[in-house]
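#onboarding

Welcome to the new folks! Below is a worked example of what a typical request in this channel looks like: someone posts a single protein sequence, and someone else replies with the predicted structure as tokens. Don't worry about understanding the tokens yet, we'll cover that in week two.

Example request:
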Amino acid sequence: MVVLRARCAIVGPSTVGKTALLQVLASQGENFSAQYTKTNGMELVVKNIALPESDDSVELFLCDISGSDLYNDSLNRYLDGISALVVVYDVCNEASFNSCAKWIKDCRAALQRQNVQVLLVGNKTD
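Example response:
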């Protein structure tokens, strides 16, 4: 049995639904909190994903990083070891979409590399 490990950061402006998205993913879609809770700094969730037709799995470390400007100075520390970046925006908020390029630029600068894989996610379509 092989266990692959990856660390993924979920970033974007405040109130775009990063934490709610992470909670739904971590709970197989069973847990959606209607209550808004602000993330302070970073929260970590570990998700184990079994690979079909094998005994292998992926242990995915999902880092929910606060969108608050208060934590911008800590971005380097939170992104340490990240192999992928999920940038989330609110589809009903154009300003949150427009900020995505800055989030990607800032994260790449903090990582000191340009080749990090980036996934852009539009949220709040409900």
